[in-house]
Design goal:
By secondary structure, the protein is of the alpha+beta class. It has ten helices and ten strands. The radius of gyration is 21 Å and the shape is globular. Bound molecules: flavin-adenine dinucleotide.
């Protein structure tokens, strides 16, 4: 076993660290003003983070998934909202095209995504189908050579900024619920019958707009299906494995940011004639967080490594996602406590990190669903 990074992995980690420093101070303003962090996404695009592990022949950097996870662990420390939008582009939609797209789809969609010129969205969740996407009701029927799409999606990240979305819809109404679903590529800007709902008012990740999407007999071309038709739920679940590694990496970043703020404060704030950091009760909190964050990072990198090796990583990704997002929440919670009353003020980053961390326990499958996946893997035996 070798815990050293390769020179390429080390280089991307260093680069992401520098880029995160460049934007860190601005993340607060985007959160406070509820603004879209265009400027931050442009910096990350300029530095090549949108294409870290997308294929080189389609404009990506051709790095491994460990590199992507390492980059997100740094970038999310600065701006979790921007990290989430990069994540949807890269870990879900970009991976979707890389793994399942036709040569033509890869040629058309991957290069602008890898350059960060277009934002993509992933639309699986519906008002009646959250944890159980097999029950989704959005449907596409054949019309002429193409398709006509009708239905509703919600919680779609990247919101009105997204140029196109991968939309999961029922394409065979006769099939069993978990079958007969396809992933459709839908141009959100030009397709008639597509309406983007108002931006939801969220607790955190304010810079990453969430919207509903409404499709009213939206016409789609014959080649709008990603991969094999009627096999879309399987593809979506495979993409969720990739997404969970990314979500875990983001959570490690958020947790590290919380620990770093708490450490800084504990060193400088004095009570009872000494810095808070001298109190054993505070040291124990810091030690527990550092330990759990290290474990979260290792679980995340292990899941990414399994993916890079072409080995099954569904359960590993679920473990990483569950543990890392719970750890990020604990880091934000305990970090805020270490700042006392100041932690509760918007002037200090812990308040935002606390709100941002909370979403990680819900998106890309809730942590209850992660337990179902892990238990299913355990029970299936060897
Ligand atoms: C910030 C954010 C961004 C998101 N981005 C996207 C996106 O880009 N695209 C997208 O498609 N979706 C997105 N989502 C939606 C997200 O994936 C869903 O919210 C999530 O899958 C849960 O679905 P639900 O909210 O309908 O909750 P429900 O499925 O209704 O679950 C409610 C509660 O019941 C629990 N529960 C459900 N079933 C079980 C079970 N079998 N056993 C035990 N407990 C169970 C859940 O864990 C949860 O605690 C996003 C959500 C958030 C908060």
């Amino acid at each position: 076993m070798n815990f050293s990074l390769t020179p390429e992995q080390d280089a991307i980690q260093q680069k992401a660290r520098v880029a995160a420093q460049e934007v860190k101070a601005r993340a607060r303003d985007y959160d406070r003003q509820g603004r879209f962090p265009q400027e931050i996404l442009e910096i990350w695009a300029r530095e090549g983070f949108f294409g870290v592990s997308l294929p080189r022949e389609y404009g990506g950097r051709g790095g491994d998934y460990i590199s992507y996870a390492l980059a997100q662990m740094e970038l999310a420390q600065a701006c979790p909202s921007s990290a989430l939008m990069l994540h949807v582009n890269h870990a879900i939609v970009g991976m979707g095209f890389s793994l399942f797209g036709t040569a033509d789809q890869k040629r058309r969609f991957l290069p602008p995504m890898a350059r960060g010129e277009v934002l993509a969205a992933f639309a699986l969740t519906e008002p009646q189908a959250g944890s159980d996407p097999a029950r989704l009701q959005t449907a596409a029927s054949r019309e002429g050579d193409g398709w006509v799409l009708s239905g509703e999606k919600n919680f779609v990240s990247s919101g009105q900024a997204a140029h196109f979305a991968l939309v999961a819809a029922r394409s065979d109404l006769q099939a069993a619920p978990h079958k007969g679903i396809s992933l459709f590529i839908v141009d959100l800007k030009k397709t008639p019958g597509v309406k983007v709902g108002a931006v939801e008012e969220k607790m955190g990740l304010v810079g990453a707009p969430s919207v509903s999407l409404h499709f009213d007999r939206a016409p789609l071309p014959p080649d709008a299906v990603l991969g094999e038709a009627n096999n879309g739920l399987k593809l979506a679940l495979a993409l969720m494995d990739h997404a969970r590694v990314g979500a875990a990496a983001i959570a490690v970043g958020v947790g590290r940011a919380a620990l770093s703020e708490a450490l800084k404060y504990a060193r400088s704030r004095e009570q009872f004639g000494q810095p808070l950091a001298q109190f054993q009760a505070i040291q124990w909190k810091l030690a527990d967080l550092a330990t759990d964050l290290e474990a979260a990072s290792l679980l995340t990198l292990k899941a990414a490594w399994l993916k890079d090796q072409g080995r099954p990583f569904t359960a590993a990704a679920a473990m990483a996602k569950k543990f890392a997002t719970d750890t990020a929440m604990a880091a934000a919670q305990e970090g805020l406590q270490i700042l006392g009353g100041y932690g509760y003020l918007k002037d200090y980053p812990l308040e935002r990190l606390f709100r941002d961390a909370r979403a990680g326990q819900i998106y890309e499958g809730t942590n209850e669903i992660m337990r179902l996946i892990i238990a299913r893997d355990l029970l299936k035996g060897e």
